[in-house]
Design a protein that fits this description.
heterodimer, A: 8 helices, B: about 75% helix, binds zinc ion
């Protein structure tokens, strides 16, 4: 996440759309990707991203500038993504549901390195589909953003041991799934 | 075995994420040096989960997203402006300090009116109750008398 100059933030908080566009430009990649990993599909990720920026625009004027802007943005993004993910997975049995589609489709003619990359992406996408939005949020903040347990706990407003439990549960599931994927690939 | 379970929980969390303090780390390493099963588990966990996300390529943000967001913000701002204008036009003329005495007079009239109405209802109820009392006593009750005079007196007269 890029650092945004304070004056740009303040102008955006006062309702300036040009400044808010600058805020969007520096944050949209992060917001969209976190949302995408948590909700696990592009259309929902777009919807979440829109909601996140609308919320930011509305609440920016109440933001206290002495607190961490990053934590604030992380929190809005992750909360929106988790809520959306929860709604999407409600009434649906998520666990180990796509054993059948574990096969990774590889476009012909793509060079070796590209195949590997495509493989990694598809695998991550599929693995992330098997864990809860809360678990995914922890995995994404840790794995993609490299945040510490303490930072993650602060963003999600949960106990640090809750972060540990979510990561452990997610990784147990991923390990057992990953073994399956590796096996099918050979 | 139970001990291994605890160490594996640590391996899947603090160990993988480099969050272990020196003491816990030494304790885990001591266990790994004597427990082959946990050593294999730790190695596999590191290989499989170590950097699941590091190689993931970021998804490009769709082009039209900002246009949509901007459009929604502008629509919201317009609605707010319209609401503000309505408020301004309809209610502002009534919010002048010169009108305060008029409002006070109005409120006094309103509440005294409500007070009178309330008492009247109470009186009517008392009269009704009086009638009922009279009829149960089997006496001839003059409705006129009741309505004209006040009830307390009528009853007093009867009992005295
Ligand atoms: Zn062991």
């Amino acid at each position: 996440m890029n650092d945004i100059p304070d004056d740009v933030l303040k102008k955006a908080a006062a309702g300036g759309l040009e400044s808010f566009e600058a805020v969007y430009k520096s944050l949209s990649g992060f917001v969209y990707n976190v949302a995408f990993r948590v909700v696990n599909n592009r259309q929902d990720a777009e919807e979440v991203t829109q909601e996140v920026f609308l919320t930011m625009y509305r609440r920016l004027k109440d933001f206290r500038f002495e607190s961490s802007f990053k934590t604030w943005v992380y929190r809005i993004t992750v909360n929106h993504a988790i809520n959306y993910g929860r709604k999407a997975s409600r009434g649906k049995n998520r666990s180990f549901e796509y054993d059948d589609e574990m096969q990774v489709t590889v476009t012909p003619g793509v060079v070796e390195a590209e195949i590997e990359k495509e493989y990694v992406n598809t695998v991550v996408e599929k693995l992330l589909g098997a864990i809860s939005p809360e678990q995914k949020a922890c995995m994404v903040l840790r794995g993609m953003e490299g945040l510490s347990y303490k930072q993650i706990a602060e963003i999600l407003e949960v106990n640090i041991n809750t972060v540990r439990t979510r990561l452990r549960r997610a990784r147990e599931i991923l390990l057992s799934l990953r073994k399956k994927v590796e096996y099918e690939r050979v | 075995m139970n001990e291994c379970r605890k160490f594996r929980d640590v391996i899947l969390t603090d160990y993988l994420d480099g969050e272990l303090d020196k003491e816990s780390r030494e304790r885990l390493e001591a266990h790994l040096s004597v427990c082959t099963a946990c050593r294999i588990f730790a190695r596999e966990a590191k290989e499989q989960l170590g950097d699941s996300f590091k190689e993931v390529r970021p998804e490009p943000v769709p082009e039209e997203l900002w246009r949509n967001i901007r459009g929604r913000i502008e629509a919201e701002n317009r609605t707010r402006d319209i609401a503000g204008e309505i408020l301004e036009r309809v209610f502002k003329p009534f919010l002048r300090p010169q009108l305060v005495p008029a409002y006070i007079v109005f409120l006094v009239f309103f509440f005294s009116g409500a007070f009178v109405a309330h008492n009247r209802i109470k009186l009517v109820t008392e009269i009704e109750q009086g009638r009922y009392l009279m009829s149960t006593l089997g006496e001839e009750a003059s409705a006129e008398g009741l309505e004209n005079a006040n009830l307390g007196t009528a009853i007093e007269e009867y009992f005295l």
